[in-house]
Write a structure and sequence with these properties.
By secondary structure, the protein is mainly α. The protein contains 5 helices and no strands. Helix content is 71%, strand content 0%. It is globular, with a radius of gyration of 14 Å.
Length: 80
């Protein structure tokens, strides 16, 4: 269950962006709601950590890391 504020509590510009993404993809990936709501409080720092984790690897290429992230998200029944 997702908090209603995470799907409806965004600013106008974020809502417009979600409309565009929803039109192109057919849905809004769940993490986008969390990462964009109160971005200055949580999203910006968490996004930096995600980027660091996915991009600073030396064992895997970026596409391999993205594929693994998508696979794990699918196993967790989370839209990536």
């Amino acid at each position: 269950m997702r908090l209603k504020i995470l799907t409806e509590g965004h600013k106008l510009t974020q809502k417009l962006l979600f409309k565009i993404i929803g039109f192109q993809m057919g849905h809004i990936p769940g993490p986008m709601h969390v990462l964009t709501y109160r971005r200055q409080w949580f999203g910006a720092n968490f996004t930096d950590n995600l980027q660091s984790g996915l991009r600073d690897m030396t064992e895997w290429s970026i596409p391999e890391a993205e594929l693994m992230a998508a696979f794990v998200s699918k196993l967790n029944q989370c839209e990536y």
